[in-house]
């Protein structure tokens, strides 16, 4: 359990770039370096996270922890990956953030954003070769990327996943390079875990009731705070930046626009999942005990996605290995590659590559990454130091 926690904690310290970058970091660490699972199994977990509401990359990490160490392993993975960003955003909510104005600090953050471009580009290249072997899969990838670039919304993303599954079911069934083989395929039947499903549904119904009662009474409580963030976590597909509109709508009465935008900016500046923004907002809302507010909000926004992963995780491995659904999985995987390609441009590339020098560093880093295949932490140190030096000279 400590090994799982330590691996995810170290990634949580350096995982800039949002969900797409996190998926790249996870693949580099747990598939290529540690061999905890193979590319096909990893691809199936990514596909499952796209179908479930919640923080997409954190759900993948949760599933990797579950694969490695059961439920406790999943919790260790979540705590490890989320703890650095939680601590940073909580401290920034209760203390001054003047240190963010220093050119040295901004340089380090900018260098790590450039590294995110390299990592995501490598992940897309590998996943393209793995999941886009046939013409139909390549067309799905290109189509999903173009549509998401032009119409980025969670409804569009979910609709594309359903369409890709249907297309894959009829045109990609039985592809030898895109099947996921797991021992559960031999089981005669597949059953969802209704224990976790009942907990998810019960908490969702209770949150709806509690928010209604709180509005009638005109008072706030920790239960209402939990309910607000739990509802947001239950409705967001894919995680990342798509959580922002729902969050602002949900807690708009409790925090000002300036506070919300400040938290959003800081969440982009720190490593880890965007959902950790809940730590900042929870501390700002529950000012009498900010740590309690941050903990409640963070738990509430992550919990729905994790409960739903537990509902389908074991069954998903069994289902995804069955011949009648391998085509649908292949279609979804191709669509996810398109999503990652769109995310490589927006928000990763456009927020990181701001000059010809930045582009040169990305090309150099990608070349070194593919030729020498260095450890991810060597790359982190290299890009961080380079960014700091550029920031110092620029300042």
Task: Write up what this structure looks like.
By secondary structure, this protein is mainly alpha-helical. It is built from 16 helices and no strands. The protein has helices at residues 2-14, 19-33, 39-51, 56-94, 103-131, 135-150, 154-171, 194-217, 222-235, 243-251, 257-269, 277-285, 290-320, 323-352, 356-372, 376-394. α3 (39-51) crosses α13, α3 (39-51) packs across α14 and α4 (56-94) packs antiparallel against α13 (290-320). The radius of gyration is 21 Å and the shape is globular. Mean pLDDT is 84; it is low at 175-188. Keywords: Cell membrane, Membrane, Transmembrane, Transmembrane helix. The chain crosses the membrane at residues 71-95, 107-127, 139-172, 192-213, 225-247, 291-313, 325-342, 376-394. InterPro entries: Chr_Tranpt_l_chain, Chromate_transpt.
Shape: globular
**Rg from Cα:** 21 Å
Low-confidence stretches: 175-188
Helices, by number, come to: 16
**Total number of beta strands:** 0
Structural class: mainly alpha
Order of helices and strands: HHHHHHHHHHHHHHHH
Query: Helix amount, in percent?
Result: over 70%
How many domains, in number, for the residues? 1
Q: State the separation between the terminal residues, measured CA to CA.
A: 43 Å
Average pLDDT, rounded to a whole number, is 84
Query: Beta-strand level of the residues, as a percent range?
Result: under 5%
Largest sheet: none
Pfam families: Chromate_transp
Organism: Shewanella pealeana (strain ATCC 700345 / ANG-SQ1)
InterPro entries: Chr_Tranpt_l_chain (IPR014047), Chromate_transpt (IPR003370)
GO molecular function: chromate transmembrane transporter activity
């Amino acid at each position: 359990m400590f090994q799982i926690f330590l691996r995810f904690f170290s990634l949580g310290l350096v995982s800039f770039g949002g969900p797409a970058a996190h998926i790249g970091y996870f693949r580099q660490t747990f598939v290529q370096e540690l061999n905890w699972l193979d590319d096909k199994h990893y691809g199936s977990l990514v596909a499952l996270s796209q179908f479930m509401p919640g923080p997409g990359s954190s759900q993948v990490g949760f599933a990797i922890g579950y694969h490695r160490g059961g439920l406790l392993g999943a919790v260790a993975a979540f705590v490890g990956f989320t703890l650095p960003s939680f601590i940073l955003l909580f401290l920034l909510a209760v203390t001054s953030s003047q240190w963010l104005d220093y050119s040295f600090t901004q340089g380090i953050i900018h260098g790590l954003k450039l590294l995110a471009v390299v990592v995501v580009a490598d992940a897309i290249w590998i996943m393209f070769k793995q999941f886009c072997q046939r013409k139909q899969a390549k067309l799905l990838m290109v189509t999903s990327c173009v549509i998401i670039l032009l119409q980025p919304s969670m409804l569009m993303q979910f609709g594309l996943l359903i369409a890709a599954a249907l297309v894959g079911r009829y045109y990609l069934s039985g592809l030898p390079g895109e099947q996921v083989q797991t021992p559960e395929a031999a089981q005669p039947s597949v059953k969802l875990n209704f224990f976790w499903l009942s907990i998810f549904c019960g908490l969702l119904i209770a949150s709806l009731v509690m928010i209604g009662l709180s509005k009638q009474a005109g008072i706030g409580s920790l239960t209402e705070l939990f309910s607000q963030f739990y509802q947001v976590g239950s409705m967001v597909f894919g995680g990342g930046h798509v959580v922002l509109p729902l969050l602002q709508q949900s807690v708009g009465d409790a925090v000002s626009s300036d506070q919300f935008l400040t938290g959003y900016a800081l969440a982009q500046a720190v490593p880890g999942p965007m959902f950790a923004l809940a730590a900042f907002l929870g501390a700002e809302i529950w000012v009498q005990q900010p740590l309690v507010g941050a903990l409640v909000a963070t738990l509430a926004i992550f919990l729905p996605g994790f409960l739903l992963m537990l509902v389908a995780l074991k069954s998903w491995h069994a289902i995804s290995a069955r011949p009648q659904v391998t085509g649908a999985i292949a279609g979804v995987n191709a669509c996810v590659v398109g999503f990652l390609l769109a995310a490589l441009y927006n928000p990763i590339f456009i927020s990181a590559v701001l000059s010809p020098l930045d582009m040169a560093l990305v090309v150099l880093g990608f070349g070194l990454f593919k030729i020498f295949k260095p450890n991810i932490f060597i790359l982190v140190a290299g890009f961080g130091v380079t960014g700091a030096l550029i920031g110092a000279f620029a300042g």
